[in-house]
Write a structure and sequence with these properties.
Blueprint (H helix, E strand, L loop, with lengths): L1 H6 L7 E9 L11 H15 L10 E3 L8 H13 L9 E4 L2 H4 L6 H15 L1 E2 L19 E3 L4 E2 L10 E7 L4 E8 L15 E7 L2 H16 L7 H9 L6 E7 L2 H12 L6 E2 L6 E6 L11 H6 L1 H14 L7 H6 L5 H4 L2 H21 L6 E4 L3 H8 L5 H16 L5 E6 L3 H8 L6 E7 L2 E7 H10 L4 E4 L11 H12 L11 E2 L4 E2 L8 H9 L4 H10 L2 E7 L4 H9 L6 E4 L7 H14 L7 H4 L24 E3 L20 E3 L6
Helix pairs in contact: 2-3, 6-8, 10-13, 13-14, 13-15, 14-15, 15-18, 18-19
């Protein structure tokens, strides 16, 4: 429908208001048309166009018009009889035929006529029908609604406002008749395009050579206007071209950077990927507290409408539970690092950004097969797995952060760079210090009162790194938060995970009973995070592609330490100090170039105000095909009879390319 085309930014050249097809049935000859059938199909097309499309609003008829003494009078007669149902006016509509310009294209003749009509509308000129020195003697145009367009005629709108309309006929040998009523497209309002920090451009072909040839054409086209915004170009290439098995994609902030990437593809400096027959299992890793920073996700909020809508929804849902508007905390003028570092704001802010990232990736066709979260990240993971609704996860995040911040301060945390057994042995002499997280084979976080943690760090022989925190999280200091949070969980309707979900309390998969147990979610505040064990379960389940969902790639570093397999792929979505959209586009391109399923390219451009434009077409790899030659045996001498085969059916056909 027209509304969908306008919504999607398609370039509308014309609108089909009405159409009809019929068959003339028996006539006096195979090539002799049936005037009544033509009259009927024209009347049916006018009826299909509706009462608002009268014949007097039509300014041009593109006739089948073969120029024959028999066919043309029959065609004009059918048109006239159909139009006379609505008007008695004469010679107000131009009539012509493209066949005078380019000849008869047989089955493509109607399509050529359509192109003529659309170009006439765009140029506001009715082109002439050539070589008309004397109209057909059997047509009395003065008694019809039509006059021959034998010269170029300015095409003015009826009453200066009504849209231009044309009628087009195409008749096939044997009696098939088609007629359409075409209207010029509506005037499109000035678009509001969303400024982009990054663009992604895919190149796809049936062979690797085709991909490189198309990359060359794209680079040449963009190079002709390097200062123009490439948004319309990438939109057209990504959404208006077929997807093939061989593919690659490049990113760039502008046309120049895209050209550099395309040139690398064209010159074989960048590999061409291929669609995998079986996509690899993917996991989402949800970052926990400590990854937050002021302005996290601000770039995506400005450039990605779907991310913006998701974060706005989260902010509205969190509003009743937060002391300050969440958007002010996340994106306030100048940034408020002190506010976002407070647990009551950090946790709900991280979850909101993670929801926006998941919504955006899912719209692009990237969904997790498995999920795991670190501390507060497990709330987002549970939402992504379908355990609880978005309003509930925002309420949980706000409450969890507020309860944890209300716990006693004066705590400290540190990372011990040693294996778990060594850390447990070292902690035995410091009863006030607890293991807070087992993150990697040689990365264990400890937590406790500040003096006790400081004493432990001085006493241990292992290398330690102090963390900047306000509380001793995942320690006895959090006891006061457990009961109120368990009550909130108990009041929430929870479901079994639709996507397998890790419990970092046990380091194993959540079950239908654990995921709905309030004590499990409450104890996760107090007990250590068994991230390394949980990640091992994820890998055992077949995961080979890992996406870190969060503001900072903390878990990617830990994950690589836990799973050093070089065949695994790790992608992170945001990174402080990097352009948000470019960071995410780079991850998308890596995913696409490895052939992991298809990307929903329309969603990549959704809501950005980009439109279809003219770009290079597909570089077909043409081959010359020859008709097969016929090898025949010599005729027998006169008087002899050929034996052993039929003179026609037993001839041997050989492809000409193989005959030699």
């Amino acid at each position: 429908p027209l509304a969908d085309a306008l919504r999607d930014g398609d370039r509308v050249r014309g609108v089909i208001k009405g159409s009809a097809v019929n068959h003339g049935g028996r006539s006096s000859g195979l090539t002799v048309p049936n005037s009544t059938a033509q009259h009927d199909v024209i009347s049916a097309a006018l009826a299909d166009a509706g009462a608002g499309v009268g014949v007097e609003s039509i300014g041009m008829v593109e006739a089948h018009g073969t120029g024959t003494s028999l066919g043309d009078p029959i065609e004009v007669d059918g048109l006239t009889r159909a139009w006379r149902r609505q008007t008695d006016r004469t010679q107000f509509c131009a009539i012509g035929s493209l066949k005078s310009n380019i000849g008869h294209l047989e089955p493509a003749a109607g399509l050529a006529g359509l192109v003529k009509v659309l170009l006439a509308m765009e140029h506001e000129q009715i082109p002439p029908t050539l070589h008309v020195t004397r109209p057909n003697d059997h047509i009395r145009f003065e008694d019809t609604p039509f006059y021959v367009a034998d010269r170029s005629i300015p095409w003015l709108r009826k009453d200066g406002e009504s849209p231009r309309r044309a009628a087009l006929s195409a008749f096939g040998m044997g009696g098939v008749n088609a007629h359409v009523i075409i209207e010029e497209p509506p005037v499109v309002a000035a678009r509001r395009s969303v400024p982009q920090d990054s663009h992604v451009l895919r190149v796809s072909g049936t062979t690797e050579e085709a991909v490189r040839d198309l990359a060359t054409s794209y680079a040449r086209h963009l190079g002709a206007a390097p200062d123009e915004d490439p948004g319309d170009f990438t939109f057209t290439a990504n959404t208006g071209r077929a997807s093939h098995r061989y593919r690659t994609a490049v990113t760039g902030a502008n046309a120049g950077e895209l050209i550099s990437g395309l040139t690398a593809v064209a010159e074989s400096g960048r590999p061409v990927g291929r669609l995998a027959n079986q996509p690899e299992t993917g996991a989402f890793l949800f970052t926990g507290q400590g990854s937050q920073y002021s302005g996290m996700g601000r770039g995506l909020y400005a450039t990605e409408p779907l991310f913006r809508a998701a974060v706005d929804e989260c902010a509205e849902l969190a509003g009743p539970f937060c002391e300050r508007p969440l958007l002010d905390v996340l994106f306030g003028d100048g940034g408020d690092q002190e506010a976002i570092d407070q647990t009551r704001f950090a946790q709900v802010g991280i979850v909101a950004v993670q929801v926006g990232l998941v919504r955006l990736l899912e719209s692009w066709g990237i969904r997790p097969d498995l999920v795991i979260g670190h501390s507060v990240g497990e709330l987002s993971a549970a939402w992504a797995a379908g355990v609880l609704s978005l309003p509930d996860v925002m309420r949980w995040a706000a409450l969890r952060g507020r309860l944890m911040q209300a716990c006693p301060t004066g705590g400290a945390m540190a990372v011990v760079h040693a294996d778990a057994d060594s850390v447990r042995t070292a902690l035995s002499a410091h009863p006030e210090v607890e293991a807070a997280a087992y993150n990697a084979p040689r990365s264990v976080t400890v937590s406790g009162p500040e003096a006790a943690v400081e004493a432990f760090c001085r006493a241990t022989s292992h290398r330690t790194t102090r963390l900047t925190v306000s509380h001793a999280f995942h320690s006895a200091a959090m006891e006061g938060a457990l009961a109120p949070f368990a009550d909130a969980v108990a009041a929430t309707q929870l479901s079994s995970p639709r996507v397998p979900l890790i419990s970092t309390l046990s380091g194993d998969w959540h079950t239908a009973s654990t995921v709905t147990d309030p004590r499990v979610w409450a104890e996760s505040i107090r007990r250590p995070v068994l991230f390394s064990d949980g990640l091992a379960r994820v890998r055992e389940a077949g995961a080979r592609v890992f996406w870190e969902i969060g503001p900072t790639p903390v878990l990617t570093t830990l994950g690589r330490a836990c799973l050093p397999d070089p065949g695994l792929r790790w992608s992170h979505t945001l990174r402080r100090g990097h352009t948000d959209q470019r960071q995410l586009h780079d991850a998308l391109v890596t995913h696409y170039n490895h052939g992991q399923a298809e990307v929903r390219w329309h969603a990549v451009h959704q809501g950005k105000g980009q439109r279809t434009t003219t770009i290079p077409t597909y570089p077909f790899e043409r081959r010359r095909l020859t008709a097969p030659s016929i090898l025949t045996a010599p005729l027998p001498p006169t008087g002899e009879t050929r034996t052993g085969g039929h003179p026609l059916f037993d001839r041997h056909y050989v492809n000409g390319n193989e005959a030699s």
